[in-house]
Amino acid sequence: MLRNTLLYPPHHQVGYLKAGRADLLRLGALFRVAATSSRSAIYIPLPPGPPPMALPVGDTPALPTLLAREDTGLRPSDWPDLRRSMRRSSAPVQVTAPAARPPDRPDDVRRRADRRPARFAEHAGTITITAHAELLFWIGDWLTDLGDRVAQDPHIHRHGESFLGDMVGFFDPGHTDQPMHAFCVVAVEPIFHRDRWRTRAAT
Predict the structure, then answer these.
(1) What DSSP line would sit under the chain, residue for residue?
(2) What pLDDT was estimated at residue 11?
(3) pTM to 2 decimals?
(4) Which of 8, 34, 56, 133 has a Cα at 20 to 30 A from 43?
């Protein structure tokens, strides 16, 4: 379970991911797992109790997320029926994520993204992200790298959260009702300044 991860659909053409260090590392691994199979999808539910410091983005609520390679043929509208069938027949499965690679491959990946961008869609209260395998791998490696940076980020220690980076131009705005210009990642760590965040959440 990713306990400190919230993904928000586009608000003014910007999508937001808010997650703690451990969850960013896990999320990077899950993107790489999704990239390895054309017959699998990864479902990431909302945490059971959103941390108080993960404040909403405008009026847009966070949503659960589904990750899949584009060659699975999975459509956002397929997910409700697929989820119902999983509840009847699912069994625990253990998988090993591929190791993270250095994320510094922007020129090659940007060319691939220009030709075949990722798709970010919302249907039935779930965000669906589909992309070709290499782009999913790169997003996973990028998220892992951001997670590795959190412990040394001075803003985390001062404010409990920090903007880590954004991904611009990787998603196809033609396949969503809310075109997304950028996908921004904000690290949130409730352990820092816990009392201050608790006070803010209560007001």
Answers:
(1) --TTEEEEEEETTEEEEEE-HHHHHHHHHHHHHHHH-TT-EEEEPPPSS--TTS--BTTBPPB-EEEEEGGG---GGGHHHHHHHHHHH-------PPPP--S--HHHHHHHHHHS-BEEEEETTEEEEEE-HHHHHHHHHHHHHHHHHGGG-HHHHHHSEEEEEEEES-B-GGGSSS--SEEEEEEE-TTTTHHHHHHHHH-
(2) 75
(3) 0.84
(4) 56
pLDDT tens profile 24-62:
999 999 999 999 988 889 999 988 875 555 555 667 788
Find where tokens 């994320």 sit.
Answer: 103
Q: How far apart are the first and last CA of the chain?
A: 28
